[in-house]
């Protein structure tokens, strides 16, 4: 039996330059079980990817802040508090980074992303004062409400779809995937994963990025 999948996007379905690896189009459209994309990116990214893969739109975005399953969207997290952190951070001399920080956060509904160039210590200090947390995905700092996680998002997806999270195979690369790894039956960290993800995974792959992911998907298909 082919297992359902919960897949991180950045660092897991991409190459080292952050580009989507074309092998996703080879293997995911014909996957014979549910595929859930679980990302820290804003909501439109995984929705678009599902659309162009020809997959049902079952997504967890913003690190669990936004979940779409069976046509229903749910939101969790205090976007206004995250905005207040961003505003305070800027007023204390921080920069959100990116040429187009407004574009990066334009579609964010529950949290704010800040460039890794930003002053991390200051960002963490300001976030803590608002009782929010900062997670580092290796792609951005995310300022978010506590207790919102991809893994909780997956439990919500599973309730709606009448699946057990333990039936899922997860693949990911960073801190924001550890909660997913904890609720699934089998989890893999790609070789480029951070230490938090590697510690949480059942198995650390020898190969990085989509090379690692593809090796798991191929062996699941052939088993
Ligand atoms: O948005 C990010 O920072 C990382 O996104 P990811 O969860 O798909 O790796
Ligand atoms: Mg990732």
Q: Report the mean per-residue pLDDT as an integer.
A: 96
- The H-and-E topology, N to C, reads as EHEHEEEHHEHEEHEHEHEH
What's the overall geometry? Answer: globular
Distinct small-molecule ligands in the complex = 2-phosphoglycolic acid, magnesium ion
Overall radius of gyration: 17 Å
Helix content: 25-40%
The separation of the N and C termini measures 8 Å
Across the major sheet, the strand order is 5-4-3-2-1-9-10-11
Binding site for Mg(2+): 8, 10, 173, 177
Function: Catalyzes the dephosphorylation of 2-phosphoglycolate.
GO molecular function, one term: phosphoglycolate phosphatase activity
Enzyme class: hydrolase
Would you summarize the structure shown here?
Substrate binds at residue 150. Helix content is 37%, strand content 17%. It is α/β, with parallel strands linked by helices and 223 residues long.
Write the layout of secondary structure elements.
Elements (H helix, E strand, L loop, with lengths): L4 E3 L15 H5 L7 E4 L5 H10 L5 E3 L4 E4 L2 E4 L3 H13 L9 H6 L5 E3 L5 H10 L3 E4 L4 E4 L5 H12 L7 E4 L5 H6 L2 E4 L5 H6 L2 E2 L4 H14 L1
Parallel strand pairs: 1-2, 1-9, 2-3, 9-10, 10-11
Antiparallel strand pairs: 3-4, 4-5, 6-8, 7-8
The chain binds 2-phosphoglycolic acid (PGA) and magnesium ion (MG).
The site of 2-phosphoglycolic acid (PGA) has 12 residues, from loops.
Report on the structure:
With about 220 residues, the chain is of the alpha/beta class. The chain folds into 2 domains: about 5-75 and about 150-220, Rossmann fold, CATH 3.40.50.1000; about 80-145, Hypothetical Protein Ta0175, Chain: A, domain 2, CATH 3.90.1070. Helix content is about 35%, strand content about 15%. The chain has 9 helices and 11 strands. The chain has helices spanning about 25, 45-55, 80-90, 100-105, 120-130, 150-160, 180-185, 195-200, 210-220; strands at about 5, 35-40, 60, 65-70, 70-75, 110-115, 135, 140-145, 170, 185-190, 205. Strand 10 (about 185-190), helix 8 (about 195-200) and strand 11 (about 205) form a beta-alpha-beta unit. Helix 3 packs across helix 5 (about 120-130). The radius of gyration is 17 Å and the shape is globular. 2-phosphoglycolic acid binds next to loops. Keywords: Carbohydrate metabolism, Hydrolase, Magnesium, Metal-binding.
């Amino acid at each position: 039996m082919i297992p359902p999948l919960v897949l991180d996007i950045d660092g897991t379905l991409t190459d080292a330059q952050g580009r989507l690896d074309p092998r996703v189009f080879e293997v995911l459209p014909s996957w014979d079980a549910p595929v859930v994309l679980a990302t820290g990116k804003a909501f439109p990214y995984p929705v678009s990817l599902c659309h162009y893969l020809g997959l049902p739109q079952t997504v967890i975005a913003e690190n669990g802040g936004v979940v779409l399953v069976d046509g229903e969207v749910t939101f969790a997290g205090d976007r206004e508090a995250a905005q207040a952190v961003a505003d305070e951070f800027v007023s204390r001399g921080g920069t959100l980074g990116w040429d187009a920080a407004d574009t990066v956060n334009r579609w964010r509904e529950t949290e704010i992303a800040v460039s890794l160039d930003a002053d991390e210590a200051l960002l963490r200090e300001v976030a803590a004062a608002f009782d929010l947390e900062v997670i580092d995905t290796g792609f951005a700092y995310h300022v978010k409400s506590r207790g919102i996680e991809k893994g909780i998002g997956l439990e919500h997806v599973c309730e709606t779809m009448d699946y057990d999270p333990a039936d899922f195979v997860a693949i990911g690369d960073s801190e924001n995937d550890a909660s997913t790894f904890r609720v699934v039956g089998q989890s893999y960290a790609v070789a480029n994963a951070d230490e938090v993800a590697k510690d949480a995974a059942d198995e650390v792959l020898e190969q990085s990025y989509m090379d690692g992911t593809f090796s798991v998907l191929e062996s699941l298909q052939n088993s």
